[in-house]
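Table 4 source record.
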Amino acid sequence: MHSLDTLNHLVADAISNFRLPNEPRNLYEPISYILGMGGKRIRPVLVLAACNVYSEDVTPAIPSALAVEIFHNFTLVHDDIMDNADKRRGFETIHKKWDSNIAILSGDAMTVLSYRLLAQADQTHLKNIIEIFNDFALGICEGQQMDMDFETTEMVDRQSYLRMIELKTSILLKGALQIGAIIGGATKSDIEAIGEFGRSMGIAFQLQDDLLDCFGDESTFGKRIGGDIVASKKTIITILAAEKLTGEQRKGFIDLYNQKSTNEQQKIEKVMDYYHKLAIKADVERLIDDYLEKAKESLDALDVDDKRKEVLRQILHKLGSRNS
């Protein structure tokens, strides 16, 4: 069994050794740029960790792990264009450093590079791997569209929001684990169970992100606290608050939240006052704990020696207790 540190090093080495053509420079340089930004790189590590549950040799899973990471970064490139974001991981976004046309084309090239890497998998596994990859690739598009639709919706219900984050965030963690498990030689039932582990973990991960945006420490979170409030972004915190309110109070909260205020700090303070009075933080923490428990149950269901699940337990613990 490989340690989590070893898997992290294998992913870092694979990314640093990934060679792109020199020309056209404006197509490939932005790809090298975003891959060099770092980040958690949890998705490619999950591919290798899942493979390692079933096989001592994770080398065959490295191209697929790299494919998953490149595809994830492609989604970030296009998200940043849609959000008109200036920064990504502390660096200037591609469409700001170059321009939107270059960012779109480089992102398109990243999808092709991902499929090229996936094609290196053993032919006996390739069909299943491509099906899983296509499922999460399309799911992410669906989730992104739902998220965009929410921007023009006065308020969103809980189930719609959870479905959106499942598609936009957790489906990729689920797929990364399933691809790794397939390459490692897992049974069909274990491929299903490890996918459920990733799905629940991914939802908990996004809910934690929502929580940190309002209740995190700016110095460790790395982003402005209250950014979602300023942007009137529908999150689980907003939704739970609206669920607890009725009548004029509910209308007043929703009107305030959707307001494009010129005094951003004042808006943050007023919305946070609602959150504190309604004890929303504790509600969100309970919901996160529910999904972390579901993830643990799915991990326990894997039909392998308990020791082989240790790295996945470590990853779950790190995601569940993160502050950034």
